[in-house]
Recover the amino acids of this structure.
């Protein structure tokens, strides 16, 4: 009773139900550490975000932020590869096309597993937008 929001307190967001929810949250958290990107995000309307206009701002974030995003992407690719391996092990089918399996993960550019680029942010936004139409 009487408890209010405390300045600086982190508000827990509900789980989106997306299989890449943790990745999405980590990318947002890292992007919000960049002052310029945070300001652009706060002033952008939903159409600017969905159209990919906001994704182009990724080229202006600090080197530290880009390095952290690259690291997050590599971790997500490793997680997806582990899921694919588990799926392969469960069906014991050696004729599985790894690239075809990776294509089902539309929230990142699987053809570039090492660096987080504007295309990755755009794909992440579009994947979330498609899910919540």
């Amino acid at each position: 009773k009487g408890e209010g929001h405390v300045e600086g307190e982190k508000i827990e967001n509900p789980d989106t139900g997306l299989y890449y929810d943790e990745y999405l949250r980590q990318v947002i958290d890292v992007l919000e550490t960049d002052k310029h990107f945070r300001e652009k995000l706060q002033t952008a309307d939903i159409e600017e975000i969905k159209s990919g206009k906001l994704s182009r701002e990724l080229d202006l974030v600090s080197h530290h932020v880009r390095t952290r995003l690259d690291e997050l992407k590599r971790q997500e690719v490793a997680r997806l590869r582990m899921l694919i391996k588990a799926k392969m092990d469960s069906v014991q089918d050696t004729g599985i096309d790894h690239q075809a399996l990776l294509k089902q993960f539309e929230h990142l550019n699987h053809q570039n597993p090492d660096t987080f680029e504007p295309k990755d942010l755009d794909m992440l936004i579009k994947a979330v937008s498609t899910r919540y139409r």
